[in-house]
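<amino_acid_chain>
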Amino acid sequence: MFQSITKKPLWVSLLIAFAIVAVIVLAFFSSLDFFTRHGEEVEVPNVTGKLLEEATSSLEAEGFEVVIQDSIYRDTVKPLAVIRQFPESESKVKSNRTIYLTVNRAVPPEVVMPNLVGMSIRNAAIVLKQFGLKMGDTSYRPDFAKNSVLVQKYDGKEIKAGTKLPMGTPISLVLGSGLSNVDMAVPDLFGLTYSGARDLLQTSGINFGAIVLDPDVKDTSTAFVYRQSPDRLTADRRANRIRPGQMIDIWLSTKKPVRDTTATTPRVVTPVENNY
């Protein structure tokens, strides 16, 4: 009699089992919203421009995780400042979402100084930008190559191509202003060292042309000028004339020359006026 009461048909047991499974599944999905905060979204704060430490504190206070995705360099932005963020500000996301940041590097990377000499100022500006450098001050000196780069400088000193510099460094350029309309007597370079002749020509706005070295010359800075073209005098012993921006060719030797004062006829030179 007892067995007949407790014993149930198989279909009833199966029904009870399915009911239990359904209750468990329903309870699981009902609690899923609680654990994942489904439907609970917050607005991403704007941290662009803030320093990394401040940006991280602000995001973590809202329940976000912070990951530095990348670092780049911009000389117009403070070191370690946030340049980009993803998701962007004002986006609606879950509070436990990861925010990826791109920050400005604390130390600028090094770049190589290009050779700008001979380029037009326009091309020089393009090349500087391509190499990650900036255009600094520009100045002019007389030279037939108008608006062409004659000298490239960093911190007031001439800088050679291939020198490494911090990205964003300003480079100053000396440009040719063209030939002057005023002429002058050709400077007398005879007996001067190369360095002395160079300094004299720079004050006159005249440049070196060809520099011819004797075989024994090893150091041009201490070598002596024993010949120049155009010479200081014409064939009829008049002062030769030259314009700022033109050039003088020189010949150098290790021995200091002595001027021949007994010569009655100077070496024949072609007057510069004929070359204008």
About this structure: Residues 1-5, 264-276 have pLDDT under 50 and may be disordered. The chain has five helices and 16 strands.
